Amino acid sequence: MYRFHPSVQFDSAYPTQQQIKEQIVNVWKRYDLERRTTFETKVTSVKKTKNGQWIINNDEEQYGRFDGILATVGVCGDPKMPPLPNQEKFKGQIYHSSELDGKDAKGKKVLIVGGGASAIEALEFAVKNEAAEIDVLSRSDKWIIPRNILVQSLLACNIFGQETSFSWIPEWLLRKFFYRDLEDIAPTDKGIFTGTPMANDELFNQIREGKAHWLRGDIVSVEENGVMFNYRSKGVPKGGPGRERLVEGDIIVMATGFKRPSLTFLPDECFDEPYGPPSWYLQVFPPKYPDICANNSTYVDAIGTVGNMHIGIYTRFLLMFLTDPLTRPTEGWMKTWIDFTRFMKRLAPTGAFDFFTYAELIYWYFFVLVVNPFRWKWALFVFFGIGRGMPLRFVEQENSFRRELKKQRKSKKAH
Fold it and tell me: What are residue 216's DSSP bridge partners?
């Protein structure tokens, strides 16, 4: 389960909304964030003043000034609920996958629309609630990997962050030893290093035990007692020919994901092409503004041992840039790094920043630390959050030296 802070612990792979809220509140209280939090405040703009500080919503008097911006809107906003053809005919209930807490599915036929992580979560809900029958209606096949730290780590070790001539090896191993008799639902049109795979150990067992069915095809229309579904054979593209059949159901769960929250409150220059998100420095710093960090808000797809480590590292990069001017990258250097990364991944089937692995991400961190000697003293702090005292003392000495140099220059001009 994704953990946004080292202290966060969950008892299950898919915690309830209430459990997630409790963990958020615990962290909020532990770090005394109440006095630093302003609720019910929609941020519509952030503007930089002449002295380099930031003003929120053009209201300095109410909110004050800030040295940096952490844009942490994330990637999941409001539920995405696309209408289904003739859904008003359906006599059962239609829910979004985010609305399942407290719903009753015992003895009912559940239809799950979608094939991503939300569909897996909805399937586990239906199994736990003893649904009579579960059908997942997916438009395409998705890569599914074991929820195993070793397997995920090995896949994340692809430092190139893209499909390579050796990618067939992990794909073959997954088909033969994980999918096994269910190899038919493994993707054939896309490699594993092109999108975020789903990590789940129980799905295939539930299918083998007859508790669930994974159906590939397209929804034709919604009927009173189910969904008219066009079954497609393996390899047939979306919307292609197939065989239509009614899939009966009492509940339709829309596992259709969430809308991406907007970053439009950031300055317009952040979106200048060809350096718009996610094509930013380290994917989160706009080239014109090293004092803005869109932490976990520009992510598209990746493979990694999902956790909180990168959130802390990105935050500490921002703190380093704000505290130590000599570590701050110039706009030209940030764009050069972006162009270099694009060149290195020019053969990737996805955009250079649309997919990455954790090994590639760690390589990015090491690379940008090593190329600037003034950042070396910050390495322990950036990676592990320790040892900030030493670099701060260096910065103070550097500041004193700069102030003294400034005085000497002024003195020479006066004479």
Answer: 138
Q: Which residues contact 147 (CB under 8 A, 6 or more apart)?
A: 13, 199, 200, 201
- Cβ(353)–Cβ(300) under 8 Å? yes
Tokens of 364: 């990015």
Residues 49-70 have pLDDT tens digits of 999 999 999 999 999 999 999 9
Tokens representing 355?
């997919």
Nearest Cα neighbor of 275 from 285, 290, 266 is 285
What are the distances in angstroms from CA 270 to CA 50, 177, 331, 373? 18, 45, 11, 27
Domains and CATH numbers, the chain: 17-76+260-376 (no CATH), 87-254 (3.50.50.60)
Per-residue DSSP letter, 16: -
What gap in Å lies between CA 232 and CA 249, rounded to an integer?
A: 20
Biggest CA–CA distance in the chain, Å, is 93
Which residue from 281, 268, 222 is spatially nearest to 47, judged by alpha carbons?
A: 268
Task: Write out the E strands in 64-173.
Answer: 65-66, 69-70, 93-96, 109-113, 133-138, 144-145
Residue owning tokens 């067992």? 205
How many Cβ atoms from other residues are within 10 Å of residue 397's Cβ? Answer: 10
**DSSP result, 24-66:** HHHHHHHTT-GGG---S-----EEE-TTS-EEETT-HHHH-EE
Q: Distance (Å, rounded) from C-alpha 201 to C-alpha 178? A: 9
- The pLDDT tens digits for 101-120 are 889 999 999 999 998 889 98
Structure tokens at 96: 């979004």
Residue-wise DSSP of 159-201: TT-S--TTTHHHHHHHIIIIIGGGGGGS-SSS-GGGSPPEE-S
